Amino acid sequence: MKKLIDFSKFSSVKIGGVCEVFVIENESEIPQNCVIIGGANNILLSPNPPKLAMLGSKFDYINLNGEILEIGAKTKSGKIYNFAKSNDIANYEFLKNIPGTLGGLIKMNAGLLGLSISDNLLEILTPNGWLGRENFAFSYRYSGIECAILAARFKISNGFSLSASNEFENKRKNQPSGASFGSCFTNPKGDFAGRLIETVGLKGHIIGGAKFSEKHANFLINFNNATFNDAINLINLAKLRVFENFGINLQTEVVIL
User: What keywords are annotated for this sequence in UniProt (predicted)?
Assistant: First the structure.
């Protein structure tokens, strides 16, 4: 099945046109040469994107079996957080205000304050079956996963922490509002992308309808109907300035399609 999606409404940064997206209803239906998207919380869509696909409702589920938690890759972070809270499961408190679906969270190894979604990961369901965590190269905001993620299993620990949940929530409250990807760049080792962007004079800098937030320079905000070119030109300017001044190659956390 295919559906038309308007990415200017669907994506978190509100940039992109109307695209045809193939909906995957079964493991056997995964199309070749397609990019599988989730909630489009970390995507910048160009005017000429690749073929796109997304998981259907079959992959939106949570099953708890003893000490194993199995979650479909289409399941939203908020649903996972609420399930963990209701079932007194620890280590998912950081998901309270991190948008996305499980597949995307694993793909980018999402996390906050030193925690990552891969910390308690056991195995991932791929088109080639279940593969153990050891088959993937997880590191800071990186998984190395190129294939489709259909589901995942985690080892659970009891003891949901409301204080940790509140700490993560307060951390997110300090982040800028508005249409954005969240963090635009990953932090270089031993430094912060926001500090570097601010130091080279780009905090609050505007190109077209896009700007680096005055509140946090690593947040690219679509404040006035920004286009793909507005956003990509701002991203490239930050890369250039930071490299010229510090010799550091900023890496985008955003996936550019």
Answer: Cell cycle, Cell division, Cell shape, Cell wall biogenesis/degradation, Cytoplasm, FAD, Flavoprotein, NADP, Oxidoreductase, Peptidoglycan synthesis
Tell me the two tokens of residue 46: 């160009």
12-34 pLDDT, tens digit each: 999 999 999 999 988 877 888 88
Q: How remote is the C-alpha of 72 from its chain's centroid?
A: 16
Pick the catalytic residue: 93, 123, 198, 253? 253
Q: Dig out the tokens for 121 from the structure.
A: 């990961």
The per-residue pLDDT for range 41-70, each reduced to its tens digit, is 889 999 999 999 999 999 999 999 989 999
User: Looking at residue 133, what DSSP letter applies?
Assistant: G
Choosing from 8, 183, 198, 241, the catalytic residue is 183
Catalytic residue among 70, 141, 161, 195, which?
141
- Report the alpha-carbon distance of residue 36 to residue 51 in Å, rounded: 9
At position 183, the amino acid (one-letter code) is S
Q: What span, in angstroms and rounded, lies between the C-alpha atoms of 207 and 235? A: 10
Confirm whether 133 is a catalytic residue. no
